[in-house]
Amino acid sequence: MRTLSGSDIKLMIESASNNLQNNKKAINDLNVFPVPDGDTGTNMGLTFGAAATAAIAAEDTAGDILTVLAKASLRNARGNSGVILSQILRGVSKALEGKTEFTTEDLKDAAVCGRYTAYRAVMKPTEGTILTVIREGAEFAEQNYKNYDDAAQFFSEYIKACKESLEKTPEILPVLKQAGVVDAGGCGVVTLLEGAEYALKEGCAVALSEGAEPVSASAAAKDDIDTANIRYQYCTEFIIQKTSPDRQSNQFRAAISPKGDCMLVIDDEDIVKVHIHTNHPGFVMEQALKLGQLINIKVDNMKYQHNENIRSAEEPVEKKTEPLKKYGVVAVSAGAGLTEVFKSVNVDKVVEGGQTMNPSTQDLLDAVSEINAETVYILPNNKNIILAAEQVNEISDRNVIVIPTKNIPQGISAMLAFEPEADIETNTEAMNEMMLAVKCGQVTFAARDSAVGGMDIHEGDVMGMLGGEITELGSDINEVSEKLVDKMVDEDTALVTVYYGEDTDEKSAAELAAEIEKDHPSIDVSVVNGGQPVYYYMIAAE
Known about the structure:
47% of the residues lie in helices and 19% in strands. It is α/β, with parallel strands linked by helices and 542 residues long. The protein is globular and about 75 Å long.
């Protein structure tokens, strides 16, 4: 029986990453919607590339390498496709945790767990996508793994099943069939698998194409490099005296696992022995209190101990921190003008990003961590960032609430409903309601030829979009914008705000505003320099 070892896994990860980097443009071109976007190939490439770098640098067994890969992919996940990929890897790593080599049965378990975790992460799964590919691949694995003794051969047959599923995606999603393409996310997964298969067959990684970014063991993630390689600062130990012997520690174990390493949770009827290296001992103990009382508490600062051992010349300076405030807000935006707008409505931290470069989960986590608040709201302001934002609560010690804003005007409106003195439930409900009360129109250009909604779209065409759908097409920016506004306003509309971008000037925006006022004299129109890329105009109707 041939199994897969740690060295096999590292080579497969490197080869998979290289293959994805080589083909990310082709994957981007499969995107049906022609808007300039944080495309699938780019998002998956950034997500897996960063994770692969961390995994290749790990000096661990096969299962541990995949654990590193999964954790790094979650932190670096970008866009919906990157988040779903990170969840697949998370499931795979759970199935293979602690194993030194993988059999055909192990690979089957990995495929099944990857499918389960990914589907669970998506509130409304859409078939004909990456989810279908991994589901049908897992079904093949479940039905056929006993027919193979060679794990590498079984892996190749599993890939064939995934490719067959990918080829059927246009029959499931009509929009793919109309465009004559397969699903981009599914293609990304198959591309990764084919790169891994190449390593097994050829004994080396896929060669990078010219200009592609390599994965290097020496380029480990910066946040994994610390004093004396100490990633988690506090060695935390204590015993929980259960309030009831019936209370199980499974939920506690799951809650603290993402917060550190070297974890031991030993459940012995009346007590639970806990050991973990973490940066958040307070969080760990708060979770433990749900089981019972804490005794024999011991928290050692390993970083401080190391510095004391080397007796550095400079005395460490303890920073004074202000008391936690009740709320903080992070908003995703691009453009100096829009950043100022968000600051004017009391957003604490603006993360640069948006359509062409989706911020990662780590980017959002860093922003949350910089805000000295008990509860932090995140406004993604882009539908392709919502999933990445929703992962932050899993790896943050703060209470993180995502208001699922899909565009900038929704984010601004949500902030207008925010009340610093209100309770969490009231604020969350009010922000969600206000978000839905604004209509947002967007005017941009077609990044590629496409056929959407019965329209033949050519690269460079000016497109007007409402509710995420292309409703107007033309060659003149202001003419398309006027037609778009006509569709947006109704008898209840009192205000239209025009945010003009970096590829439009104030004069053109003022001319557009004048035409809107002429056509709709009862509506107030304001013009704001948003400075946003990609979109000539973002238009809000309230």
